Amino acid sequence: MAQCSNIVENVIAPPPSSYEGYLYSYTNLTTNQIYLGIHKGSVNDDYNHSSTNVEFAEVFADLKSQLKFEVLNYGDYSEMQQLENTLLKKVDARKNPLYYNKSNGFPIYNQPDLDKCKAFADRLNAGDFNVGKEPIGTHTSMRALQVRFKHDAAHQKIIKEKVDDALGNTDKCFPVLTWEGRGEDGEDLRGDGNHTVWGASMSKHCIDIPVMRVPYELHKDFSNEELRAIGNLLNKRPDIIKKEMDPEDGVKHCLDNYEVGVPCDSTSNIDWLKAFGFSGSSTKGTINTIIKKAQAEAKKSDMKKSGVLWKNYNAKPHHQEMLDMVDTFSRLPNTTSVYMSSLKFSSDRILDRLYATKPTEAKKAMGVEEVNKIVIVIHHSTPEAEENWKLNVQPGWMNIIKYTIKDDFEVKFFEMKTTESDLSEDMTVEAA
Questions:
Q1: 318-416 architecture in CATH?
Q2: Nearest to 144 by CA among 318, 321, 378, 341
């Protein structure tokens, strides 16, 4: 920037080796009024400001003025524009007498409002919407606005066991969050508490669970991304039988935002990940790991939809879906079936299944036909496992099977669907 004699204080952090633009501010030290702006270019060029505010122009031109110049951030120009809008909107600079800005800037993308979501999560944590207990069946049949990357079978089991130990008492369960009237057809949606619902439902003693309900009028102006973010903020709170966020949940948060135009490594995502309790930064620690994984997942076609949920067939409700598919194939003539994970493919299980279905001589005499076909139902634990299966594991095993058992048996593979809309807990079975 060009040096002016009325700029009595400069706060300019050393710029990174590469940047497209920067966010800056001028503070009138006499009145404490501020002008916030962005510039596409170098901090060392001749640029001063682009304000159209007459009052600020007069102050800037007055050599008797006492101004402080500060560079607040460096980075991609679009990111600086987004950050400018965030900061101006936060103080409503357009109407704020302490700001010279005539507008609140223009966002590049719509991102969740962190302060608004934090404030609402605080109300939920304070119990403002607790309505007591409701029948467990009401919530197992309810569709979900899923915030986690996938269901966790181990955590469901822990909840089941704790509810069993308490003889069905669910007082220690964190209340299940319900967004009233949020569904496409005006039905209620579960916003948080999926593990509680499915874990408690497995308990032979469970009758009801604690619930918090938010009336439609109070959340109608929140985006789905903001509702998911609120759910993640609730998961930050530790609870005896409530699962905290893990890195995969952080990845999903970044992917949800990516689908509405937010870069995975945006400053807003980093702020959110810190708010969720993750450590590190964009260049190190858990946050860096989350961002890099999100960037990798964003390149995959099946993860480039808003609100994608990876189906975990080791947990409810999808495990039964897989068992049903195995049963369907096993009912076909001369056919048996077995399921297994693509991460733990085992020829031993195939041979064991074929041996178990071999009819005895007595059964042959009764007309029971020998099995000569087997369908291996495959499920994928992760996107990486699916990709590795298709590229490496399946082709290799097909060659092995070809020279071992395929002369005697017909072997086919069926892959379970890997993703579903996170607005649904449906049980639809499709080929992957």
A1: 3-Layer(aba) Sandwich (3.40)
A2: 318
